[in-house]
Amino acid sequence: MTQTALTQVDWHGHGLQLLPQRALWDPQQRLLLLADLHLGKAESFQASGVPLPSDGDLDNLNRLLDLATRLRPAAVVVLGDLIHGPLGLTAELRQKLAALPALLGCPLRLVGGNHERGSWIEGLVPEPPQQAGPLWLSHDPSTPPQPGLLNVCGHLHPVALLGQGADRLRLPCFALDRRQGRLLLPAFGSLTGGHPCPAGLQRWGIADGQVLPLP
Question: Number of C-alpha atoms within 13 angstroms, CB side, residue 125?
Protein backbone atom coordinates (compact mmCIF):
# COMPACT_ATOMS: atom_id res chain seq x y z
CA MET A 1 0.00 0.00 0.00
CA THR A 2 1.11 3.57 -0.64
CA GLN A 3 -0.23 6.88 0.58
CA THR A 4 -1.23 9.85 -1.53
CA ALA A 5 -1.95 13.48 -0.65
CA LEU A 6 -5.63 12.52 -0.43
CA THR A 7 -4.92 10.05 2.39
CA GLN A 8 -5.51 7.16 0.09
CA VAL A 9 -3.87 3.78 0.35
CA ASP A 10 -3.63 1.30 -2.47
CA TRP A 11 -4.02 -2.46 -2.26
CA HIS A 12 -2.85 -4.08 -5.51
CA GLY A 13 -4.43 -1.27 -7.52
CA HIS A 14 -7.54 -1.00 -5.35
CA GLY A 15 -7.71 2.47 -3.78
CA LEU A 16 -9.09 3.03 -0.29
CA GLN A 17 -9.63 6.39 1.38
CA LEU A 18 -9.04 6.97 5.10
CA LEU A 19 -11.67 9.39 6.38
CA PRO A 20 -11.24 11.76 9.35
CA GLN A 21 -14.69 10.68 10.55
CA ARG A 22 -12.96 7.36 11.52
CA ALA A 23 -14.31 5.37 8.58
CA LEU A 24 -12.96 3.81 5.39
CA TRP A 25 -14.32 4.57 1.93
CA ASP A 26 -13.94 2.11 -0.94
CA PRO A 27 -14.90 4.19 -4.00
CA GLN A 28 -14.60 1.33 -6.49
CA GLN A 29 -17.13 -0.83 -4.66
CA ARG A 30 -18.90 2.20 -3.15
CA LEU A 31 -18.71 0.67 0.32
CA LEU A 32 -18.54 2.73 3.49
CA LEU A 33 -16.80 0.66 6.18
CA LEU A 34 -16.69 1.45 9.88
CA ALA A 35 -16.43 -0.42 13.16
CA ASP A 36 -17.12 -0.17 16.87
CA LEU A 37 -19.89 2.40 17.24
CA HIS A 38 -20.94 0.91 20.60
CA LEU A 39 -24.37 2.54 20.46
CA GLY A 40 -26.15 2.43 23.79
CA LYS A 41 -22.93 2.44 25.80
CA ALA A 42 -24.03 5.34 27.99
CA GLU A 43 -27.29 3.56 28.78
CA SER A 44 -25.36 0.39 29.65
CA PHE A 45 -23.28 2.36 32.15
CA GLN A 46 -26.38 4.10 33.51
CA ALA A 47 -27.89 0.69 34.24
CA SER A 48 -24.80 0.01 36.36
CA GLY A 49 -25.12 3.28 38.25
CA VAL A 50 -22.67 5.40 36.23
CA PRO A 51 -24.43 8.67 35.20
CA LEU A 52 -23.03 9.15 31.70
CA PRO A 53 -24.93 11.56 29.40
CA SER A 54 -27.00 9.96 26.66
CA ASP A 55 -26.04 12.24 23.77
CA GLY A 56 -23.09 10.22 22.45
CA ASP A 57 -25.23 8.18 20.07
CA LEU A 58 -26.54 11.34 18.43
CA ASP A 59 -23.01 12.42 17.50
CA ASN A 60 -22.18 8.97 16.13
CA LEU A 61 -25.33 8.71 14.05
CA ASN A 62 -25.09 12.27 12.72
CA ARG A 63 -21.51 11.68 11.54
CA LEU A 64 -22.62 8.50 9.82
CA LEU A 65 -25.58 10.19 8.14
CA ASP A 66 -23.40 13.09 6.99
CA LEU A 67 -20.98 10.63 5.38
CA ALA A 68 -23.78 8.76 3.64
CA THR A 69 -25.25 12.01 2.32
CA ARG A 70 -21.90 13.09 0.90
CA LEU A 71 -20.63 9.76 -0.45
CA ARG A 72 -23.91 8.02 -1.40
CA PRO A 73 -22.58 4.49 -0.77
CA ALA A 74 -24.09 1.35 -2.23
CA ALA A 75 -23.99 -0.08 1.30
CA VAL A 76 -22.76 0.78 4.78
CA VAL A 77 -21.00 -2.16 6.41
CA VAL A 78 -20.37 -2.05 10.16
CA LEU A 79 -17.51 -4.36 11.10
CA GLY A 80 -18.86 -5.37 14.48
CA ASP A 81 -19.93 -3.78 17.76
CA LEU A 82 -22.67 -1.60 16.35
CA ILE A 83 -24.20 -1.76 19.83
CA HIS A 84 -22.54 -2.01 23.22
CA GLY A 85 -24.77 -4.75 24.59
CA PRO A 86 -28.27 -5.81 25.63
CA LEU A 87 -28.55 -3.31 28.51
CA GLY A 88 -28.13 -0.39 26.16
CA LEU A 89 -30.47 -1.69 23.48
CA THR A 90 -33.43 0.44 24.56
CA ALA A 91 -36.72 0.83 22.72
CA GLU A 92 -35.53 4.25 21.53
CA LEU A 93 -32.30 2.81 20.13
CA ARG A 94 -34.22 0.01 18.42
CA GLN A 95 -36.39 2.63 16.69
CA LYS A 96 -33.32 4.54 15.52
CA LEU A 97 -31.70 1.39 14.15
CA ALA A 98 -34.90 0.41 12.34
CA ALA A 99 -35.03 3.83 10.65
CA LEU A 100 -31.33 3.95 9.84
CA PRO A 101 -31.29 2.22 6.40
CA ALA A 102 -33.93 4.62 5.04
CA LEU A 103 -32.04 7.61 6.41
CA LEU A 104 -28.77 6.33 4.96
CA GLY A 105 -30.40 5.75 1.57
CA CYS A 106 -28.74 2.35 1.24
CA PRO A 107 -28.59 -1.08 2.90
CA LEU A 108 -27.02 -1.31 6.34
CA ARG A 109 -25.10 -4.53 6.96
CA LEU A 110 -23.44 -5.84 10.08
CA VAL A 111 -20.50 -8.21 10.33
CA GLY A 112 -21.09 -9.58 13.80
CA GLY A 113 -18.85 -8.51 16.68
CA ASN A 114 -18.48 -9.70 20.25
CA HIS A 115 -20.81 -7.02 21.63
CA GLU A 116 -23.72 -8.20 19.47
CA ARG A 117 -23.74 -11.61 21.13
CA GLY A 118 -26.93 -12.24 23.04
CA SER A 119 -28.79 -9.36 21.37
CA TRP A 120 -31.40 -9.33 18.65
CA ILE A 121 -31.84 -6.36 16.31
CA GLU A 122 -34.87 -6.48 14.04
CA GLY A 123 -33.96 -6.54 10.35
CA LEU A 124 -30.21 -6.62 11.01
CA VAL A 125 -28.86 -10.15 11.20
CA PRO A 126 -25.13 -10.32 12.06
CA GLU A 127 -23.17 -11.77 9.16
CA PRO A 128 -19.96 -13.84 9.30
CA PRO A 129 -16.59 -12.53 8.06
CA GLN A 130 -16.72 -12.27 4.29
CA GLN A 131 -14.97 -11.23 1.11
CA ALA A 132 -15.78 -7.99 -0.69
CA GLY A 133 -13.65 -7.75 -3.82
CA PRO A 134 -10.00 -7.70 -2.69
CA LEU A 135 -11.03 -7.13 0.95
CA TRP A 136 -11.69 -9.62 3.75
CA LEU A 137 -14.12 -8.00 6.20
CA SER A 138 -14.18 -9.09 9.84
CA HIS A 139 -14.62 -7.70 13.32
CA ASP A 140 -11.66 -9.34 15.01
CA PRO A 141 -8.41 -9.46 13.06
CA SER A 142 -8.51 -12.69 11.08
CA THR A 143 -6.61 -14.51 8.37
CA PRO A 144 -8.32 -14.36 4.95
CA PRO A 145 -9.17 -17.75 3.41
CA GLN A 146 -6.95 -17.03 0.42
CA PRO A 147 -3.72 -15.02 -0.01
CA GLY A 148 -3.78 -11.55 -1.47
CA LEU A 149 -6.88 -10.27 0.35
CA LEU A 150 -6.62 -7.31 2.71
CA ASN A 151 -8.21 -7.99 6.10
CA VAL A 152 -10.11 -4.84 7.11
CA CYS A 153 -11.20 -5.11 10.72
CA GLY A 154 -12.05 -3.32 13.94
CA HIS A 155 -12.21 -4.55 17.55
CA LEU A 156 -8.81 -3.25 18.68
CA HIS A 157 -9.70 0.48 18.78
CA PRO A 158 -6.13 1.48 17.80
CA VAL A 159 -4.69 4.75 19.12
CA ALA A 160 -1.30 6.32 18.57
CA LEU A 161 0.61 7.66 21.58
CA LEU A 162 2.60 10.79 20.78
CA GLY A 163 4.85 12.90 23.00
CA GLN A 164 5.72 12.39 26.63
CA GLY A 165 4.44 13.34 30.06
CA ALA A 166 1.92 16.18 30.16
CA ASP A 167 2.35 16.70 26.40
CA ARG A 168 1.32 13.14 25.56
CA LEU A 169 -1.48 12.73 23.02
CA ARG A 170 -3.71 9.75 22.29
CA LEU A 171 -5.00 9.91 18.74
CA PRO A 172 -7.37 7.42 17.15
CA CYS A 173 -5.60 5.98 14.16
CA PHE A 174 -5.70 3.70 11.16
CA ALA A 175 -2.95 1.09 11.28
CA LEU A 176 -1.63 -0.99 8.40
CA ASP A 177 0.24 -4.24 8.92
CA ARG A 178 1.97 -4.74 5.58
CA ARG A 179 3.36 -8.16 6.41
CA GLN A 180 0.04 -9.71 7.42
CA GLY A 181 -2.09 -7.73 4.97
CA ARG A 182 -4.31 -6.12 7.60
CA LEU A 183 -5.83 -2.68 8.04
CA LEU A 184 -7.11 -1.81 11.53
CA LEU A 185 -9.91 0.75 11.68
CA PRO A 186 -10.25 3.23 14.55
CA ALA A 187 -13.36 2.98 16.69
CA PHE A 188 -16.12 5.09 15.14
CA GLY A 189 -17.93 5.61 18.45
CA SER A 190 -17.27 8.76 20.46
CA LEU A 191 -17.53 6.97 23.83
CA THR A 192 -15.03 4.23 23.06
CA GLY A 193 -11.60 3.88 24.61
CA GLY A 194 -8.50 2.83 22.75
CA HIS A 195 -5.50 0.53 22.86
CA PRO A 196 -1.98 1.55 21.84
CA CYS A 197 -1.26 0.52 18.28
CA PRO A 198 1.19 -2.40 17.98
CA ALA A 199 4.73 -1.38 17.13
CA GLY A 200 5.99 -1.56 13.57
CA LEU A 201 2.74 -0.72 11.79
CA GLN A 202 2.17 2.13 9.37
CA ARG A 203 -0.11 4.61 11.13
CA TRP A 204 -2.33 7.54 10.22
CA GLY A 205 -3.60 9.61 13.15
CA ILE A 206 -6.83 11.59 13.23
CA ALA A 207 -6.64 15.15 14.61
CA ASP A 208 -8.50 18.41 13.91
CA GLY A 209 -10.55 16.84 11.15
CA GLN A 210 -7.53 15.53 9.28
CA VAL A 211 -5.89 12.16 8.69
CA LEU A 212 -2.14 12.56 9.11
CA PRO A 213 0.74 10.12 8.52
CA LEU A 214 2.64 9.35 11.70
CA PRO A 215 6.31 8.40 12.09
Answer: 2
